[in-house]
Design brief:
The complex is a heterodimer of chains A (207) and B (245). Chain A has 207 residues and is α/β, with parallel strands linked by helices. Chain A has helices at residues 75-90, 104-115, 143-154, 172-182, and strands at residues 6-8, 11-13, 40-41, 58-61, 64-67, 95-99, 122-126, 130-131, 137-138, 160-164, 186-188, 198-199, 204-205. A five-stranded parallel β-sheet of chain A has the order 3-6-7-10-11. In chain A, strands 1-2 form a two-stranded antiparallel ribbon. The chains are: A alpha/beta (207), B alpha/beta (245). The complex binds flavin-adenine dinucleotide (FAD), flavin mononucleotide and FE2/S2 (inorganic) cluster.
Chain lengths: 207, 245
């Protein structure tokens, strides 16, 4: 087999392919060899369990799939007590944990919790979620907010620190530079694009 | 559960808007239970960027698995355009299955695309049971073999909704168990009428992965949002928060 190994920030991956967070689970290893991927990225977790958005959450359009999942997840505690063990057992490729928060403090507490555990190669920081301390405007839309958040997180870890950027901004390069200045060792492009589909019969949004 | 690319063994057009599609797969045929479904997609250029579609098992005969599919939109239209020998991408069997009872008085109620899983269930319920099967649809084109048929336009069987006479049947027959599949409005009404008889519903939801991974297909239950593809599609009716649907 050809050598397709590559570097992602601090870590070397045997393959340059990673899955998009939230769209992929270990169930898919029934279909394909794990080693096709360089690493496995979890669905985003948060400090507290999150119930997610009401249904429907998906709508298929000509332009792609709209989703409004709302980060449904069992929370950090359940992730550490259950999923992490299962993932460590199952995976032969590096594990990257995706996480998010509604406040800076929540991001920090999740990272502190994860830092106590082995078997994690890196983090993907999902900053496309609303910042409740700033009227719900997504973290990932303001370079200053991103810089401060990433700077605090970078101080807590030696592991690979990927910042996943939101495409729903005027100039994504500014956000990327802020993440790098804060201490991100790589960036992930891109999170979900905003979109809307309207049911022409009712005039209402499909999601 | 496995992923395969298989040829269509046989495909038949049924009336104006249904197809019966059959594949040959020995291993799967022995693994199927009533209520299970497969994720299916036609191998056609227009479908490359489209989702797989969840389709219940309709019949299993020896090594053959059949699906009864109503043409609704892009995905099902592409399936209907296939000819025998054309290829399908398919994975499954997926989801949980109906519990099978014995020595019971059973009511089966289907509406719309809800008929196939109940027809398969009926074939698996043994002869110790007494079964009444009601099927409903918009018109005669939507009705399949059953004991009593209901059509909204009155073009076949009894005019009205399939739930129309159920309160009376319940009084007369003292059912031990109800199984249903169909549009949410039908299931909701039915759940109210047959309560507190044990009632298992097969839910439909828009799906992406079909594997429990994306959390795209949830319904509200007493224990929070549950994934139709993974925690279901069969649920006990009393666990569902119908008012939120
Ligand atoms: C577990 C399960 C088993 C199923 N079994 C069968 C079966 O045996 N036979 C059969 O004919 N159909 C079955 N269905 C329904 C079938 O999956 C849909 O009709 C199909 O996905 C439509 O796809 P499409 O691309 O043709 O239409 P789309 O373009 O996706 O949709 C057309 C319209 O139908 C609505 N719609 C699409 N899918 C659903 C859905 N799942 N629930 C509610 N509304 C929807 C959309 O909102 C849209 O307005 C099943 C669904 C589930 C969840
Ligand atoms: C069903 C679904 C669930 C997703 N869940 C997450 C998630 O938990 N965390 C995250 O960072 N991104 C999530 N995403 C975004 C994807 O990871 C990806 O960034 C996005 O879909 C853009 O890539 P694409 O254009 O290839 O779809 C989700 C996307 C979908 C469709
Ligand atoms: S369709 Fe993805 S979780 Fe059910």
């Amino acid at each position: 087999m050809n050598d397709i190994s590559t570097c992602l920030g601090k870590i070397t991956l045997k393959s340059p392919i990673l899955n998009a967070s939230g769209t992929f689970g270990t169930e898919y290893f029934n279909f394909l060899e794990q080693e096709v991927q360089g690493a496995y990225v979890t669905k985003t977790i948060t400090l507290k369990p999150k119930e997610g958005n009401p249904s429907p959450r998906l709508y298929e359009t000509e332009a792609g799939l709209l989703n409004a999942i709302g980060l449904q997840n069992p929370g950090l505690k359940s992730f550490l007590n259950e999923d992490l063990f299962e993932l460590r057992d199952c995976l032969r490729i590096p594990l990257i944990v995706s996480f998010s928060g509604a406040t800076e403090d929540e991001f920090i507490r999740v990272m502190e919790g994860l830092e106590l555990h082995s078997g994690i190669y890196g983090y993907e920081i999902n900053i496309s979620c609303p910042n409740v301390e700033r009227e719900g405007i997504a973290f990932g839309t303001d370079p200053d907010v991103v810089f401060k958040l990433v700077e605090k997180l970078a101080k807590l870890t030696e592991r690979e620190l990927i910042v996943k950027l939101s495409p729903n901004v005027t100039d994504i390069a500014l956000i990327a530079q802020a993440a790098e200045a804060g201490g991100a060792t790589s960036i992930s492009l891109i999170n979900t694009l905003y979109g809307m589909a309207i049911d022409w019969e009712t005039g209402k949004s499909r999601l | 559960m496995q992923y395969k690319i298989l040829p269509v063994e046989k495909i038949e057009k049924i009336r104006t808007n249904y197809i019966q599609l059959t594949i040959k797969e020995e291993e799967w045929a022995s693994q199927c239970s009533p209520g299970n479904f497969f994720q299916i997609k036609a191998v056609i250029d227009s479908q490359n960027r489209r989702l797989f579609k969840p389709i219940s098992i309709y019949k299993v005969e020896e090594n053959y698995i059949s699906f009864l599919i109503k043409v609704i939109g892009e995905g099902t239209r592409a399936l209907a355009s296939l000819k025998s020998g054309d290829k399908l991408k398919i994975y499954g069997p997926l989801g949980n299955s109906f519990p099978l009872v014995q020595d019971s008085n059973i009511l089966l109620v289907s509406g719309g695309t809800g008929y196939p899983p109940l027809a398969y269930l009926k074939s698996k319920l043994d002869s110790s049971n007494n079964i009444l099967f009601l099927d409903g649809g918009a018109s005669k084109d939507d009705i399949f073999p059953c004991d009593y048929a209901y059509t909204i336009d009155g073009s076949f069987g009894i005019q009205g909704m399939v739930t129309k006479d159920i309160a009376e049947f319940v009084k007369k027959k003292s059912f031990d168990c109800v199984y249903s599949c169909g549009p949410i409005s039908m299931l909701k009404t039915l759940a109210q009428i047959v309560n507190p008889i044990p009632h298992y519903v097969s839910m439909e939801a828009y799906m992406a992965c079909g594997l429990g991974v994306c959390y795209g297909c949830v319904i509200p239950t007493k224990e929070g949002y549950k994934r139709v593809c993974y925690d279901g599609p069969i649920f006990e009716a009393e666990t569902i928060l119908w008012a939120e649907l």
